[in-house]
Amino acid sequence: MASLPEDKLAQLEKRFDSVEAALSAGPSAEEYVRLSKEYAELEPVVKPIIVWRKANEELRAAEELASSGDREMAEMAQSEIAELKPRIEAMESEIRILLLPRDAADARTVILAVRAGTGGDEAALFDGDLLRMYQRYADLQGWKVELMEESPGEVGGYKEVIAKISGKGAYARLKYESGVHRVQRVPATEAQGRIHTSAATVAVLPEVEDIDIDIKPEDIRIDTMRSSGAGGQHVNTTDSAVRITHLPTGLVVTSSLKSQHQNRAQAMVVLRARLYEAQREARDTARSDARREQVGSGDRSERIRTYNFPQGRVTDHRINLTLYKLDKVIAGDALDELIAALITEHQAAQLAAMEGVR
């Protein structure tokens, strides 16, 4: 494996020291916020580099001692060398991963959209299962979940549900969930006990600000309509639901809460997120066709995972990983095992690509 890029390490350490010194010098409030953000980004990368350098110094000292004439000291040094070398190799692997290019959207809040696909009522029920899985997973990660839009199914679950998930690392981990999720099980409504196959589409989008996506007023059409849903005179009498159509792309988003003002705001949030993601996908596709071979491509037409209830297994088709703990995965408790494996595979692909360039 190639050695670490010394020039890049030195640049990161120099910038970290510079930012640290600037923070200690008492900058203005605005500059302090900017520097603190940069410090928080640099520290997790630079600190392991500092520890790695110290370990290398200890290794050099031990190697010098091992070559001395003192037999007892040489034996002690050899023992230290045997301990330091694998530690240093592990540190180098960690640093290589930390140096990988970061997705600019990783720190953003998530807009999660889950939509029932083939399978009718069973697909809607599966939609509800997936939402609860992500809600539980978010809770375990310490993230906040806010439902933005929901279209209930006829017998339960959802035809479509949209939620906002905020918290550190939310998009960085959940982005691997985009795609078609397939379920194989006996529906509660199936009298013959036959296994049905249903599907739901998951879209994980990064929330974006006005400055990220410029939407011109003349490019959208906003229609108000009567809210649909169960119960409540307000739903039956008020034209509060909002449908926004982005004319250049044909994208349509809706929101049907009680407040028309809130509906417009929420629909615009989802529209910006979808336009931003469409731009990212177009850019990444143009840059490299190899992206199709990488996990986490975000291709929502791709079947990524199967949940097989009769056999109690869940299989992620992108990395050919099967876990026989479907109950824990669908409950959200073991979902991170799949996500962690996807991240590891993605990082390995990135490292291999970088090594191939050198």
From TrEMBL:
Residues 281-301 are annotated as: Disordered. Its main location: cytoplasm. Transmembrane segments: none annotated. It is found in: Cytoplasm. SUPFAM superfamilies: Release factor. InterPro entries: PCRF, Pep_chain_release_fac_I, Pep_chain_release_fac_I_sf, Prokaryotic/Mito_RF, RF-1. Pfam families: PCRF, RF-1. The keyword Chaperone does not apply. Keywords: Cytoplasm, Methylation, Protein biosynthesis. One of its GO terms (cellular component) is cytosol. GO terms for molecular function: translation release factor activity, codon specific. Methylated by PrmC. Methylation increases the termination efficiency of RF1. Residues 226-242 form the Prokaryotic-type class I peptide chain release factors domain. The modification N5-methylglutamine is found at Q233. Peptide chain release factor 1 directs the termination of translation in response to the peptide chain termination codons UAG and UAA. NCBIfam families: prfA, PRK00591.1. Belongs to the prokaryotic/mitochondrial release factor family. PANTHER family: LD18447P. This is Peptide chain release factor 1. It comes from Devosia nanyangense. The gene is prfA.
